[in-house]
Amino acid sequence: MNLLDSITISATGLSAQRTRLNIASMNLANANVTRTVDGGPYRAKSVVFTAEKYRPEAEGTGFEAELEKAVETVKVAEIVEDPDPFIQVYDPGHPDADAEGMVSYPNVNTMEQMVDVMNASRAYEANATVLETAKSMALKAIDIAR
What span, in angstroms and rounded, lies between the C-alpha atoms of 36 and 39? Predict the structure, then answer.
C-alpha cells in the first residue's frame, strides 16, 4: 500500500463522517417540528455505512498483497428513517393537537444525537489526522529526494 492509498482511504472516511454529522445536525434542528411538508411530524434519520474492499484484485502472495486485499473503505449505503413511534404530548392549545389534545412530536432522541455528533466529529478528526500525517510524510520524502 502506498501513500496515495492511505489518503484515498482517509478521504472516504471523511466523506462518510461528514454525512453522519449532517444527518445528526438535521435531526437536532428538527427535534420539535410537528408539521413537515408531508403533513406529519419530522421522523429521525440515521446513516448506514458499508465497507467495500479497496483493492480486491491485488495480486501477489506476500504480506503487502494480503494487506491490500484486506483493506476496506467506508461508504454511505443509505440514509434510513427511524421506525420508532412519535412522542405523544398532551397540549390541547397546540395548533397540531388532535381531537383528544395530543400532539405528535418527532422521534428524535437529543441525547443520542449529541453522542452521534461527538462520535462522528472524533472519527472525522482521526481521519483528518491520518490525512495530515500522509501529507507530512510525502513532503518529507520530497525533501529527502532533493
Answer: 5
Q: What is the pLDDT along the chain (146 residues), one digit of tens a residue?
A: 577 888 888 999 999 999 999 999 999 999 999 999 988 999 999 999 999 887 666 566 677 666 666 778 899 999 999 999 999 999 999 999 999 999 999 999 999 999 999 999 999 999 999 999 999 998 998 899 88
- What is the Cα–Cα distance from 19 to 29, expressed in whole angstroms? 15
Query: In Å, what is the CA distance from 34 to each residue of 28, 39, 52, 119?
Result: 13, 9, 38, 28
The strand pairing partners of 90, in sequence order, are 102
Q: Where are the domains of the chain?
A: 3-31+45-81+108-145
Phi-psi sector, 19: left (phi>0), alpha (psi -120 to 50), beta: alpha
Q: Give the Cα separation of 97 and 84 in Å (integer).
A: 20
**How far is the C-alpha of 94 from the C-alpha of 17, rounded, in Å?**
37
Q: If you search the block for the grid coordinates 461527538, which residue do you land on?
A: 118
Cβ atoms of 13 and 123 closer than 8 Å: yes
